[in-house]
Backbone:
């Protein structure tokens, strides 16, 4: 007897159990591109499993010296950026953690030619948009060489340092060391092993510059409140709120970002890059499987997202329609919605909720489309 390809019936399906408090939702040492997508401009690069000991950088926490290496504006002399994003979508209350190292062309105090580049992290990313134009993010320059060395964006819109959500000790601070008064980052030198390989990597970073040390990012996300709180090396830097200003979706993919917003090319491309290691996403509260639109209820709106993008690859299909993260909107995604149908807080009184029989017909129609594809 052949196995049925029909989606799970409502009577037979089991509700997917959400993660327990603080449970691991996703983890990666970033040595493999599996589970990730890369969106970047032409003159950018992502290298998974890069051995950073080859450029004299000391081992981060972990068992090896492998990490994700990101580069931008390698040779074109133009603004370039890149984002590495998870295939998995996160929603509800969750926490993102990762380690980051920024390297730049020396001498370190003022930086060599083309030394100023940005690196950081994002939540709520759509997985399609290049650069910083999706979700909420925070980035730093490595050399404190920009007019604004700390930048927070909501869907690509730069949030001013005067915003009350920033740590008040950062308000109004700017070039050359916006974190100087806070003592956010102390001056450091390049690793001795790197100086041996590249003698121009002398001197020390300026106070407040983020480069030449492993920095630990923590992003606490609360979708209900619409907030994303960014903490770096134990210091609360900024809390972005989706309910004011530009706004952003707290539900989406996690992104690791790197960009060069200037046209000068690094004097030594071998030492111009950002490293990312130990990406971890944990759940502060159970996530609601199948709630694609993030309204706290699995229903007709979520089903319509699937059906409206059925049988398409991502992109161009809406990334929200691909909760399975396999890059194709199909039966696995449909089953996530059907398997948790009517879970969560019901919609407002009077909203139409299909009966199980109607839903089953829709499911059968989806399977018919699937069979036509085969």
Residues:
């Amino acid at each position: 007897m052949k196995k049925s390809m029909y989606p799970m019936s409502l009577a037979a399906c089991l509700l997917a159990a959400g993660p327990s408090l603080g449970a691991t939702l996703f983890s990666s040492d970033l040595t493999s591109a599996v589970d990730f997508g890369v969106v970047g401009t032409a003159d950018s690069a992502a290298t998974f499993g890069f051995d950073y000991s080859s450029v004299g950088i000391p081992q981060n926490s972990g068992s090896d010296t492998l990490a994700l290496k990101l580069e931008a504006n390698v040779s074109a002399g133009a603004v370039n950026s890149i984002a590495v994003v998870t295939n998995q979508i996160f929603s509800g209350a969750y926490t993102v953690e990762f380690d980051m190292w920024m390297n730049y062309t020396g001498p370190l105090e003022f930086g060599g030619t083309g030394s100023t580049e940005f690196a950081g992290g994002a939540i709520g990313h759509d997985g399609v948009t290049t650069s910083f134009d999706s979700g909420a993010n925070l980035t730093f320059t490595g050399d404190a060489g920009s007019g604004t060395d700390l930048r927070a964006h909501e869907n690509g819109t730069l949030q001013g340092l005067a915003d009350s959500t920033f740590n008040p000790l950062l308000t109004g601070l700017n070039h050359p060391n916006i974190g100087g008064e806070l003592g956010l980052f102390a001056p450091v030198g390049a690793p001795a092993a790197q100086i041996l390989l590249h003698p121009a990597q002398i001197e020390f970073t300026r106070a407040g510059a983020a480069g030449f040390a492993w920095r630990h990012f923590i992003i606490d996300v609360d979708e209900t409140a619409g907030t994303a709180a960014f903490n770096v090396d134990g210091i609360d830097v900024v809390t972005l709120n989706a309910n004011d200003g530009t706004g952003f979706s707290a539900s989406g993919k996690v992104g690791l970002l790197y960009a060069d917003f200037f046209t000068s090319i690094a004097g030594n491309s071998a030492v111009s890059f950002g490293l990312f290691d130990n990406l971890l996403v944990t759940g502060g509260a159970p996530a609601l499987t199948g709630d694609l639109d993030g309204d706290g209820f699995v229903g007709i709106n979520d089903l319509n997202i699937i059906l409206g993008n059925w049988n398409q690859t991502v992109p161009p299909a809406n990334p929200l329609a691909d909760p399975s993260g396999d890059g194709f909107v199909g039966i696995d995604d449909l089953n996530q919605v059907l398997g948790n149908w009517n879970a969560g807080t019901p919609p407002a009184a009077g909203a139409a909720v299909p009966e199980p029989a109607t839903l089953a017909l829709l499911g059968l129609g989806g399977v018919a489309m699937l069979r036509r594809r085969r």
Observations:
- Residues 23-283 form a domain with the Jelly Rolls fold (CATH 2.60.120.560).
- The longest strand covers residues 93-103.
- The chain has two domains: 23-283, 300-373.
- The helical segments are 192-197, 300-308, 331-338, 356-373.
